[in-house]
Design goal:
Layout lengths: L7 H16 L43 H22 L6 H14 L5 E5 L2 E5 L5 E5 L3 H4 L7 H4 L19 E7 L10 H10 L12 E7 L2 H7 E12 L2 E6 L4 E11 L2 H6 L1 H5 L3 E6 L15 E4 L1 H7 E11 L10 H10 L2 E7 L5 H16 L22 H10 L15 E2 L2 E4 L2 E3 L2 E6 L12 E8 L6 E7 L6 E5 L6 E2 L2 E4 L3 E5 L10 E6 L9 E21 L2 E19 L27 E13 L6 E5 L4 E5 L5 E9 L22 E10 L4 E4 L12 E5 L19 E5 L6 E5 L2 E7 L2 E13 L26
Helix pairs in contact: 1-2, 2-3, 6-12, 12-13
């Protein structure tokens, strides 16, 4: 806890502050020599890297303000507003000359012992050693051509995302959007941070609200402290003024951000140790009229360093820090700031190198959140272009890569530039701040606690008695749950056979209990839920017919014919929704990949007959007749039926499924082709005039249709011109028409491989749980009417 002293040392410091403002104003002080002046105030001065910042002290209630403290606060405010007024009334020249003139005035007024211009403003030193930061980082104020206006970006009333805000019940995972709500320069639009926090699906009353909290929060020191250890942070966004202060005689570069906490007797008394340790600065925003708005001064406020933040905020290991403020990754302080946050558990830290347009910063922040969460909120569509249908969530490295290559088109930022770029600030024909670049540093891995499970594809392996489901995508390393919800049924947890960061394998429910189709979701170990992906099923009635020319029967050559028919009631299931394999690419139609028919499929072999006459006069003839019917079941039994997808080599002769790529292949781009096969043992009877010597295994049947011959080489068993089996799916209602040409294959019927004419016909009816009619498990997060890409 902060050891907020009420000792003589604390009051002596207050007295020192009071003494300088009451006794030094008539004694001008020579301006402290500045470092080599940059060509513009956004350039990097010649200076050594910032050393590790002095650790900030912890906070607790301070002493009761005294008359001395009150008087000191008033004088500090007066000194800062004097400099603010002086700057606003200067004639327009260049940013550097105006800031240098203001720095000279600060010292000549007697209010400061030193003032030095650096990136983003002026660092002043009071006679008592306390530091002042005069922010001049606002691109919109300096650039008359900037897009923001005061009327469009005036502070909005900000609300917390949960009752009581961060002072409420403890949580394990905090998503915090801190935003400047008191600035009148037009640089910030707090309502956007409200939209960003609201996009996270863990608001008050949600299934995640007991462990997660997402807040939009005014950036007061009190709110930062309130996070404490009761609200450890996974994701922190900071939108306020930022600058590089040049501190002390060595002009050590120190990064600071402005808070919403006003300077008064109470705040000076509360934060006095941090003020004296240079972890808290007195600050004010420098504003000039630019033709867009009338100057409305922002009252002086306290500012803070990264070391002060890490002393009061507990970051969960692997946290992400998104700094929307100016200069957060300026080369002078980048490595030091990254090191301070990394030591506190931040895995990746993003910030801008120079002044950033407020609209650009908001749009970039929106893009990052939108793609991280899987485009959950229509409110974010006002700041970033969303896909239609919506795409699945992606992880942070993929998103940051996309931000560097994709161009802005959200409607609020500078269109046509990458999301990691904000254009130069044009101040005059001879002066400009450089373009600002969003840079991400850090060597840690982002925590799974803010990475939503993301399903890319589902692939079923039908089996008896258990069918399994392979789920490919991006998932937490730690094992979570996979939920399956049949149409009209309740969600059930599936048995997990294996779990990795890229693929999961689970057991599917018994098809006989209604678990053929349903919505699939993956739930991370902390409760984050993936978007719903439907596993679709079809059923249909089919007739298979074949007419065989028998050239061999047992060991005898001769001539003969045979025929049979099979009545089929088949079920298949697959994931057929379009998939987005990588972030922000066009959706790819999925091939109908089938491993087999569903376990509840049936077939009946009947109407089989045949006759054979041997070319050996001594063997004469044989007759095959049916004896009732033979039941067939899915593959795995002696008498089986099978519908599956085989791999067609690239460039193979047999095209199928409109050449659409499927979710599984052999790693060489081969696609799946549908095929039908059956086998029956002991079907029917055979009689001959040789006491059974001719019949042999004549009652064993089997054939396949639709398999590409080029896959099997020159083996005579498959050296044929097969029938073409085609499954054509209607993209509107997902019904499947099945057609087959009549081809010739060698089939293992009537005791030997024989050329057979074969045909399969029928239709798969309207499916259960097709992609366009599936509903989400979490209606609060995603409306059923907002279809989704994966």
């Amino acid at each position: 806890m902060r050891m907020m002293s009420t000792s003589a040392r604390g009051f002596a410091a207050l007295a020192l502050i009071f003494a300088f403002v009451s006794g030094c104003s008539s004694n001008p002080v020579t301006l402290t020599p500045q470092p080599a002046a940059p060509t513009n105030p956004g350039a990097t001065p010649t200076a050594t890297a910032q050393p590790t910042a002095t650790p900030a002290k912890t906070a607790s209630p301070g002493p009761t303000p005294t008359a001395t403290a009150g008087s000191a606060a008033a004088k500090i405010v007066a000194a800062l507003t004097d400099a603010q007024s002086y700057y606003a009334n200067l004639p327009t020249t260049t940013p550097l000359s105006e800031l240098q003139a203001t720095a000279k005035h600060m010292v000549s007024s007697g209010n400061f012992t030193a003032a030095v211009v650096g990136p983003g403003g002026i660092t002043g030193t009071f006679p008592g050693g306390q530091q002042a930061a005069l922010f001049a980082d606002r691109r919109e104020e300096l650039d008359p051509s900037a897009s923001a206006t005061a009327s469009a970006r005036r502070p909005a009333v900000i609300r917390m995302q949960s009752p009581g805000g961060i002072s409420g019940a403890s949580t394990s995972h905090e998503i915090a959007y801190f935003i400047n709500t008191t600035d009148y320069s037009g640089a910030f639009t707090p309502s956007r941070q409200v939209d960003l926090a609201g996009a996270w699906p863990m608001g008050y009353g949600s299934a995640l609200s007991s462990t997660y909290e997402a807040d939009a929060i005014p950036v007061t020191l009190e709110n930062i402290i309130a996070l404490g250890t009761n609200h450890p942070v996974d994701y922190l966004s900071l939108g306020t003024h930022g600058m590089v202060a040049l501190v002390g005689a060595q002009q050590t570069p120190t990064y600071i951000n402005q808070s919403d906490t006003k300077i008064n007797a109470t705040t000076i008394a509360t934060y006095l140790p941090d003020i004296m340790a240079h972890n808290i600065f007195h600050s004010v925003m420098l504003i000039r009229p630019n033709g867009q708005h009338t100057v409305q001064f922002t009252l002086p406020e306290l500012a803070f360093t990264p070391a002060w933040v890490t002393a009061h905020v507990h970051f969960n290991p692997g946290a992400y820090f998104d700094n929307e403020s100016c200069y957060g990754q300026n080369p002078m302080i980048s490595s030091a700031v990254t090191a301070v946050y990394a030591a506190a558990g931040v895995a990746q830290y993003s910030g801008w190198t120079y002044p950033v347009d407020g609209n650009d910063a908001d749009e970039s922040d929106s893009f990052l959140a939108d793609r991280l969460l899987g485009e959950p909120s229509s409110a974010l569509a006002a700041y970033v272009s969303q896909r239609s249908p919506l795409q699945r969530p992606f992880d942070l490295p993929d998103i940051l890569s996309a931000m560097a290559s994709e161009t802005r088109n959200g409607g609020v930022g500078n269109a046509g530039n990458p999301y990691t770029y904000s254009p130069p600030t044009v101040y005059s024909p001879t002066s400009a701040w450089p373009a600002s670049i969003l840079v991400t540093t850090g060597s840690g891995t982002i925590t799974d606690d803010i990475i939503f499970p993301s399903i890319a594809t589902l692939t079923v392996s039908e089996g008896t008695p258990t069918s399994t489901l392979r789920i490919d995508g991006e998932f937490p390393v730690a094992t979570g749950k996979v939920m399956f919800t049949p149409p009209g049924g309740s969600a059930i947890a599936l048995t997990i056979d294996s779990w990795s960061a890229t693929d999961l394998i689970v057991d599917l429910p018994d098809a006989s209990s209604g678990g053929v189709a349903g919505n699939v979701t993956v739930v991370g170990p902390t409760g984050l839920v993936s978007p719903v992906v439907p596993l679709t099923s079809w059923s249909g009635t089919f007739i298979y017919k074949e007419n065989t020319t028998i050239s061999d029967f047992g060991s005898d050559s001769g001539t003969g014919t045979g025929s049979l028919g099979i009545a089929l009631n088949l079920g298949i299931r697959a994931d057929v929704a379009p998939v987005v394999p990588t972030i922000d690419v066009s959706p790819v139609p999925q091939n109908l990949y089938i491993s087999n028919v569903t376990p509840n499929s049936t077939g009946t072999l009947k109407n089989y007959k045949g006759s054979f006459t041997s070319s050996d006069p001594a063997d004469q003839t044989a007759t095959i007749t049916g004896s009732g019917s033979v039941s067939l079941a899915p593959y795995g039994t002696a008498n089986f039926i099978q519908v599956s997808s085989s791999l067609n080599p690239v460039g193979g002769a047999a095209a199928c499924n409109n050449a659409m790529p499927g979710p599984q292949d052999d790693g060489q781009g081969n696609i799946g082709c549908p095929g039908f096969a059956y086998a029956a043992t002991g079907a029917g009877t055979c009689s001959d005039n040789q006491d059974g010597a001719l019949c042999g295994q004549a009652t064993e049947y089997g054939a396949q249709i639709g398999m590409p011959s080029s896959q099997y080489g020159d083996d005579e068993d498959y050296d044929n011109t097969p029938s073409t089996l085609t499954f054509t799916m209607d993209p509107t209602n997902y019904t499947i028409a099945v057609t087959s040409t009549t081809g010739t294959t060698y089939t293992e019927n009537y005791s030997d491989f024989s050329p057979t004419k074969e045909n399969l016909s029928g239709t798969f009816s309207a499916p259960l749980q097709p992609p366009l009619t599936s509903v989400t498990a979490d209606g609060r997060r995603r409306s059923a009417s907002r279809n989704r890409l994966r």
